[in-house]
Design goal:
The structure holds 2 protein chains of 2 kinds.
Chain A: E1 3-10, H1 16-23, E2 28-29, E3 32-34, E4 45-47, E5 51-56, E6 62-67, H2 77-82, E7 87-93, H3 99-110, E8 118-124, H4 134-140, E9 142-143, E10 146-147, E11 150-152, H5 158-181
Parallel strand pairs in A: 1-6, 1-7, 7-8, 8-11
Antiparallel strand pairs in A: 2-5, 3-4, 5-6, 9-10
Helix pairs in contact in A: 1-5
Chain B: E1 2-7, H1 11-25, E2 32-34, E3 43-47, H2 50-62, E4 67-71, E5 77-79, E6 86-87, H3 89-99, E7 109-112, H4 113-127, E8 131-136, E9 139-145, E10 150-153, H5 158-167, E11 172-177, H6 179-186, E12 191-193, H7 194-204, H8 209-215, E13 218-222, H9 228-231, H10 235-246, H11 251-258, H12 262-274, E14 278-282, H13 297-314
The chains are: A alpha/beta, B alpha+beta.
Chain lengths: ~180, ~325
């Protein structure tokens, strides 16, 4: 049985666990513990290893969703998780200061995985930041000059999570078509 | 009309600067005129040399209503009153449009008919320049604030208006507005995002014969991801965007690669073209290469996902 890996990245409190749970309709394994870094994100619990969910595909294959821990001290895990991944979703928390710099830093991590990795950027908590510079971030969201899709998402809303996956799948398909046909 | 007297160091430089002002003004041809007479101009632009600065200072003292800008050696413009802020194209455009207040009593027609309106919107949307009124047969229908990317409906409901714009595209016209005029006409009406409205209008219109003719010999490339409010939940729209951002394709290539009807591809391109997201390129003479081996995996996953989503929706 073949498995396809999709990794969800993002800072602490950006909504990775919530998104994985939404997309998988709640069927997840998580490793949340009490949050000891309330300065990083003001929430009661946080992921220390990873979130994981399975989605069965119609031909018996499986889509595996991995949510990375958001704390900086676990950043060594990101490249390991990205190995062999078909796609990645990068979540940016609109409430945080320096969203643009955070986006740049993540793109730096993702750059070595190059054209083999389909990528979508999603901005969360936008309802709390009405004047967010979404257009500026969208302009910045490029990998090797190629514009990346950047959209606003409420990670709690399953439909929005699935829509995000639709966009990611479109990117995967386009990567494959360009690789196949030049 | 705004009359501009440019005093530079060479004619070519003066002409280039005047052309830049014309583009930044977002006004129709002829509305920024070169003047040779200091007493018959609204704006004096001088090259930044000590002699010209002193001369300009004297001229302004004698003509208090004369605007004066200074162009530095790098081509940047600043107010002649000593302000240090560089005037970007937005500020230049606003100032030039402001200078023609009172000189024009009748509205300035920017574009007439589908072709001219399409051309104008494609130019102005990416540079976010100007305000305009869209009308048909003397009846105002829609206000367009291109700077803010917003629209104000003068006819409700939106669905009926969009249908009217789509059907009457050939008979529509665009008039230039000043910001204050737009504000006065808009009153308390709700401002809506402009591009989703344009997108729907373009998709519903059947007045695309000229573009369709060009598409027979052209590939289409997308320049950026459209605003997701424009795309809504249109999964095939996502697929077309992803493909056309990575590779310029003809309508037939898109239809073949994504297994979509050519008419659906054309509808998407019409909308992307009107909104300034798409550009045409000469189609390569070489047909699409056959699929290389071992590259279909991600395509398969995307197909499986679509099947899963389809059965989700049907459930």
């Amino acid at each position: 049985m073949r498995e396809h890996k999709v990794v969800v990245l993002g800072g602490m409190g950006s909504g990775k666990s919530t998104l994985v749970r939404s997309i998988a309709a709640g069927a997840v394994v998580d490793t949340d513990v009490a949050n000891s870094d309330r300065a990083g994100a003001d929430k009661a619990s946080t992921t220390v290893a990873l979130d994981y969910a399975d989605i069965d595909l119609p031909n018996g294959e499986r889509l595996r969703l991995y949510g990375t821990p958001g704390q900086q001290r676990f950043d060594f895990l990101w490249p390991i998780l990205l190995q062999g991944a078909r796609g990645a979703v990068l979540l940016l928390d609109a409430r945080r200061a320096g969203v643009a710099a955070e986006l740049d830093a993540y793109l730096q991590v993702l750059r070595p995985f190059g054209p083999a990795l389909a990528l979508v950027v999603a901005v969360t908590h936008l309802d709390q930041v009405p004047a967010a510079a979404l257009d500026d971030w969208a302009e910045r969201a490029r990998l090797d000059g190629q514009p990346l899709p950047l959209l606003a998402v409420d990670a709690r809303d399953r439909e929005q999570g699935l829509l995000l996956m639709d966009v990611l799948m479109s990117e995967m398909e386009a990567h494959a078509l360009v690789a196949a046909h030049g | 009309m705004a009359r501009v007297l440019v005093v530079g160091t060479d004619i070519q430089g003066e002409q280039a600067l005047l052309q830049r002002l014309r583009l930044a003004s977002a006004l129709p041809d002829g509305q920024i005129r070169r003047s040779q007479d200091l007493d018959d101009c609204d704006l004096l632009v001088i090259r930044d040399t000590p002699a010209l600065r002193n001369a300009a200072l004297r001229m302004r003292q004698q003509r208090p209503r004369l605007h004066c800008w200074i162009e530095d050696l790098g081509g940047q413009l600043r107010e002649g009153d000593g302000g240090q802020d560089v005037l970007d194209d937005g500020a230049i455009g606003r100032a030039l449009r402001g200078m023609q207040t009172g000189t024009e009593a009748t509205p300035i027609r920017l574009a007439d008919g589908a072709h001219a309106i399409t051309r104008l919107l494609r130019e102005r949307l990416p540079s976010r320049q100007g305000q305009a009124l869209l009308g048909e047969g003397g009846e105002p229908l829609l206000l367009l604030d291109l700077e803010q990317d917003q629209a104000v409906l003068l006819h409700e409901p939106a669905t009926v208006l969009v249908e009217r714009l789509a059907q009457g595209f050939e008979h529509l016209y665009l008039d230039a507005l000043l910001p204050a005029q737009l504000q006065a006409l808009a009153g308390d009406r709700t401002r809506l995002p402009l591009r989703p409205l344009l997108w729907q209008w373009a998709q519903r219109s059947r007045h695309w014969q000229a573009l369709d003719e060009r598409l027979r010999g052209a590939s289409v490339k997308l320049l950026r991801w459209p605003d997701f409010r424009v795309l809504g939940h249109d999964h095939d729209g996502f697929r077309l965007c992803s493909l056309l951002l990575k590779r310029a394709c003809t309508v037939d290539e898109c239809a073949m690669l994504l297994d979509l009807p050519a008419a659906a591809v054309r509808d998407f391109i019409h909308a992307a073209y009107l909104c300034g997201y798409a550009q045409l390129q000469v189609a390569p003479a070489v047909p699409l290469a056959g699929a290389r081996a071992n590259t279909a995996d991600n395509g398969l996953l995307a197909r499986l996902w679509r099947t899963l989503r389809g059965s989700d929706r049907d459930a």
